Amino acid sequence: xxxxxxxxxxxxxxxxxxxxxxxxxxxxxxxxxxxxxxxxxxxxxxxxxxxxxxxxxxxxxxxxxxxxxxxxxxxxxxxxxxxxxxxxxxxxxxxxxxxxxxxxxxxxxxxxxxxxxxxxxxxxxxxxxxxxxxxxxxxxxxxxxxxxxxxxxxxxxxxxxxxxxxxxxxxxxxxxxxxxxxxxxxxxxxxxxxxxxxxxxxxxxxxxxxxxxxxxxxxxxxxxxxxxxxxxxxxxxxxxxxxxxxxxxxxxxxxxxxxxxxxxxxxxxxxxxxxxxxxxxxxxxxxxxxxxxxxxx
Length: 297
Hints:
This protein is an alpha+beta fold and 297 residues long. Helices cover 22% and strands 39% of the residues. Among the domains are: 55-157, Immunoglobulins (Immunoglobulin-like, Sandwich), CATH 2.60.40; 160-261, Immunoglobulins (Immunoglobulin-like), CATH 2.60.40.10. The strands form five sheets. A six-stranded mixed sheet has the order 2-11-10-5-6-7, with no helix packed on it. Strands 13-20-19-15-16 form a five-stranded mixed sheet, with no helix packed on it. A hairpin with a 2-residue loop joins strand 17 and strand 18.
C-alpha cells in the first residue's frame, strides 16, 4: 500500500476514534500529534488524566536569576500533570546544548551538579560553588511532542572590594608613626546578598577575633548594595607593619601595605621632597637667566 493512502486511512481512523475531542477543540495540530507521536498500548479510550498536557507552574516562559560567585543555587522547574513524561535539564550555548540531567539522573562529570526532586512537582537542578563560567542559559525540558521548555538565565556577580584610609582615599601603601592609630576602611559592593563574613588579616593572622595583640577593633555595617568594614589598631608599633587584607570569606579580597615608622621620614616622602626642591631650584635658575638677558638687552 502506498504511503499517502495509508496515512489517509490512519487519519480517518483517528477522526472516528477521537471525534468528541476533535469536535470540542477543533485543533487539527493536536490531533496529528496524538496520532503520529503519542504511543498507545491499548485500544481502549484514554483517561481524562492522560488527555491533560503537562504545563509549568510559572506564568512566564523564563526567569532571570542573579547569584553571587561562590554561592550555591537551586534552579526550580515545577511541572504539573507530568504523567509518563520525563523532565530534563540542559545548558544551552548558542546552538549547542549540554545534557545535565535526565529524569532522576545527572549526566555530567561536573560533581557540582545535583538533581533534587521536591514534592509535589519541583525538579530542581542544584549548582554548588558557582564560578563565573556558570553564567548563562539553562533549560528545563519536558518530553512532550514537541517538547515544552522553561528557561533560567543565570547571572554571576563578582563582589568588588576597596580599601581606603581614614579620609576615604583609596590607598595601596599607608604610613603611620609609632603610637598612632591605624584606621582602614573596606568597602564591599556588588553583593546581592550582603554577609557579615568579612575578615581582616594582618599577613596570615586573622584580626576579627584576635585578643592576643589587644587594641584591635573591627566594625562592620551592612549597606543596601554591600557592606563597609572598619579596622582600628591602637598604639601602632613597628611590628604592626605589613600587608593588611580585607576579604569576603574566600570569594574576593584586596590588600594594603602598612608602614609603621619609628620617627624616621618615609623614603617616598624624602624622594617627593627632593623632587620639589629640584623643581624650585630649576625655576630659580630660569628666572635668574631671564633677568640677566633682560638687563643685557
